[in-house]
Amino acid sequence: LAAVAVMGLGAAWIGWHNSTGGSDDTAEQPATAPATPEQIAKGAYLARAGNCMACHTARGGEPYAGGRGIETPFGTLYSSNLTPDADTGLGRWTANDFWRALHHGTSKDGRWLYPAFPYTSYTGVTRGDADALFAYLSSLPPVTQATKAHALRWPYSTQAALGVWRALYFSPGASVSRTDASPQWNRGAYLVQTLGHCSSCHGTRNALGAVDSARAFSGGLMPDQTWYAPSLLDTGQASVAGWPLQDIVALLKTGVSPQASVSGPMAEVVQHSTQHLNDADLQAMAVYLKDLPTDSNSPRIATALAVSVRVAERGAKIYEQHCAN
Predict the structure, then answer these.
(1) Of 5, 104, 142, 167, which sits with the fewest C-beta atoms within 10 Å of its C-beta?
(2) Cα separation of 105 and 89, whole Å?
């Protein structure tokens, strides 16, 4: 089981993401007509909602062409090329292939994907939204750029370890939906839990690197071990249970509200993703986040950071370079 620890932040399939949730057709679909402009526009919106470009674009590189290195405790992984290049991207993929990647976490050739591409969340993306995303990505200019080989230590790089992890922590399913909740609440749950995959950062991970479903928003160190994502349940951290809805919307849209402001990775989420969402979706997310239960037993920032020597070393270097004088 030691090999299973690789799952904290695994492979290069890291981003993608709109709909209300509920049941959806998970079967293979026949070949469809060419994508319409409306479907492509919807896919572009969904890609913003999921902040796909953030992980699938190297610094200074072509959008969606992959190659961004992601450091993890298990080694470095590189994001894949999502442009429709036939040799190095998705040019030979079909909508069914793309659906299987999101819903089942498997590549076109049948390989299991590492959950750095958070298919544990994306398994709830509806088939219609998956097809719209694929239509948008297929409309992009193709970029020839092969994905770099991951630099994972053995045995974290093996499919055998990944298979054990999947058996323990993953099973394909539909998006979260409650019959006793409003359509707005269900839409917010879909955006936060599925498309936004917020638990990938704000979730508490177990010893094998999986997000504990019971503590999906309890906060913890992000997989690269350099930022702490605060608890969305703890009123002493980032819970918005007591906030007015308009302040939650303001934070998601501008990064600033009368209650707080964002920084670090969350500032990038606002910049590249949530500020581009329409007001109805931001309001739905606010309704859902405000309704999350409160929990004062979330790990505290100082305690969480203390477990990582790398964080302390990086802080010392930054202090020496910018603060000591």
Answers:
(1) 167
(2) 17
Q: Going by C-beta distance under 8 Å and a sequence separation of 6 or more, which residues neighbour residue 90? A: 81, 82, 83, 84, 98, 134, 137, 138
Contact 188, 248 (CB under 8 A): no
pLDDT, one tens digit per residue, over 34-56 is: 889 999 999 999 999 999 988 89
Three-state SS for the chain is CHHHHHHHHCCCCCCCCCCCCCCCCCCCCCCCCCCCHHHHHHHHHHHHHHCHHHHCECCCCCCCCECCEEEECCEEEECCCCCCCCCCCCCCCCHHHHHHHHHHCECCCCCECCCCCCHHHHCCCCHHHHHHHHHHHHCCCCCCCCCCCCEECCCCCCHHHHHHHHHHHCCCCCCCCCCCCCHHHHHHHHHHHHHCCCHHHHCCECCCCCECHHHCCCCEECCCCCCEECCCCCCCCCCCCCCCHHHHHHHHHHCECCCCECCHHHHHHHHHCHHHCCHHHHHHHHHHHHCCCCCCCCCCHHHHHHCCHHHHHHHHHHHHHHCCC
pLDDT single digits (tens) 120-143: 899 999 999 999 999 999 999 999
Rounded-to-integer distance, Cα 269 and Cα 251, Å: 11
Give the predicted TM-score (pTM) of the model: 0.80
